[in-house]
Amino acid sequence: MTLLELHGAGFAYGSRRVLDDVSLSIDEGDSLGLVGESGAGKSTILRLLLGLATPLGGQVLFEGTALSPRDRAQMRRFRASVQPIFQDPYSSLDPRQRIDRIVGEPLRSLGLASGADAQRRISEALDAVGLPADTARRYPHEFSGGQRQRIAIARAVVSRPRALLADEPVSALDVTTRVQVLELLDRLRRENGLSLVMVSHDLTAIASACDRTVVLKDGRVVEQGATSDVLHAPQDPYTRALVDAVPRLPR
């Protein structure tokens, strides 16, 4: 079943057009990578898929129906089903709040759980990302960048979503921690049947986390397909240039 779609979507910031006639789809359990240089439109696509912006032409579809901010029932189901993971684990967590408050925010804002039920779901989410139970009573400044990103992922999964939309989720982390977080996302996706859409400049991250890849250039899709095909046998010259630019260790 197709969960999320863009049909002929465009977008502009003022007079600067950043997306032009973009179409893509994300099925249940699918993992999709969005790659391209800065300014290609990757993060804007994520904003459209999260319902944080409205396309200028075209549509965003959820479960085959156009997303409508005026349809409260649809938007509540959408918000519970589609959760973001942001790039910077240092700025995405409120330093004034305890971790249980941070992780439980989707439960409160969407009215999904309260009291003992909410605390149980918070504990389950923290356990799912490999953090101990006492994490809930602590504050963000007590954790490393990798641990903070795990907390952000716990916040994203506490509502039991169907899709995670991640904007450069490992770019602020060191290499070892980056691998651990990518492995965590892959495990959560497979164990829970989640869809994953991930924006990244790092083609190795896309290769390890995503089954399909969309390549963007100047707001247009220039290539898409199975990640192994796109990265190992690219058809578009721009994609070949991106792949060739990946640093390799000297022999």
UniProtKB/TrEMBL annotation:
GO terms for molecular function: ATP binding; ATP hydrolysis activity. One of its GO terms (biological process) is peptide transport. Keywords: ATP-binding, Nucleotide-binding, Transport. SMART domains: AAA (SM00382). InterPro entries: AAA+_ATPase, ABC_transp_ATP-bind, ABC_transporter-like_ATP-bd, ABC_transporter-like_CS, Oligopep_ABC_C, P-loop_NTPase. It holds the Pfam family ABC_tran. Residues 4-243 form the ABC transporter domain. Gene3D superfamilies: P-loop containing nucleotide triphosphate hydrolases (3.40.50.300). Belongs to the ABC transporter superfamily. This is Oligopeptide transport ATP-binding protein OppF. It comes from Microbacterium oxydans.
